[in-house]
């Protein structure tokens, strides 16, 4: 379940497990339903998302892949304070509302039927009822004051269709992905860069600035080179093949002439 902090508009989707993939798929489905991405996302301290959260110091260590997911969608992750009802309780009350109002007492013939019922319930019940805290319908409050604050989706594909990699630029001015080489500006030789592969595009970033972009190749051991990346490097001297020696007529005499000069035949 995902709930927007201002309007209290909610998105609900069932999953059969609580693995990281379910968290990511659920958040992306919520972004799509709301039509945008919030600046911050307050998360539960699930093991799939948070590796460490010290209740005393509030030190938080998020899962590395969650941080990549947050960078991809452009939001700042925050973790609920452990054992603090003020942050955790808001989420739990929403879950309880879904369980008792949307699910309890409703038989479902299949998983598809459950999903269809929840979609109807969000549209016909949750979005339009008067919220107990705001005393307004979540959908009305969302449309009036909140939708403009969301970051546009910009047609991005799901995160799981994207890879976020770390590579070191090799001496040939390239980084390697799936045995293929993609060039970057020669000044970055030896530097560490991020490589984002998504939607058939390979984007290479250094210090959060895109320094190169290439179409992704489906081949193996290919080299995608941008000539501008080598500008400023002294060109290597081309290998010069020795020219063929000109034919020397003195070396092409009949053998009997050589025999006479050497004193006769063998």
Could you characterize what this model shows?
The chain is of the alpha+beta class and 266 residues long. The protein has 2 domains: 2-149, Nucleotidyltransferase, domain 5; 162-230, no CATH class. It has helices spanning 20-34, 64-73, 85-103, 111-126, 138-146, 255-261, and strands at residues 2-3, 10-11, 40-43, 50-53, 60-62, 76-79, 163-168, 174-177, 180-183, 192-198, 201-206, 209-215, 223-224. The strands form 5 sheets. Strands 7-10-11-12 form a 4-stranded antiparallel beta sheet, with no helix packed on it. A 3-stranded mixed beta sheet has the order 8-9-13, with no helix packed on it. A hairpin with a 2-residue loop joins strand 10 and strand 11 (201-206). The radius of gyration is 33 Å and the shape is elongated.
List keywords for this structure.
elongated; 2 domains; Nucleotidyltransferase, domain 5; 6 helices; alpha+beta; 266 residues
Using only CA atoms, what is the Rg? 33 Å
The first-level CATH class of the largest domain is given as: Alpha Beta
CATH superfamily of the largest domain, by name, is: Ribonuclease H-like superfamily/Ribonuclease H
Strand residues, percent: 15-25%
Supply the number of structural domains. Answer: 2
What overall geometry do the principal axes of the alpha carbons give? elongated
Percent in helix: 25-40%
- Any idea of the CATH topology of the largest domain? Nucleotidyltransferase, domain 5
Q: Largest sheet, order of strands side by side? A: 7-10-11-12
- The helix tally amounts to 6
Major sheet description? 4 strands, antiparallel
The low-pLDDT segments are 237-241
CATH architectural designation of the largest domain = 2-Layer Sandwich
What pattern of helices and strands is seen along the backbone? Answer: EEHEEEHEHHHEEEEEEEH
- Based on secondary structure, the structural category is alpha+beta
Distance between the termini: 104 Å
Mean pLDDT reading: 86
User: Could you give the count of β-strands?
Assistant: 13
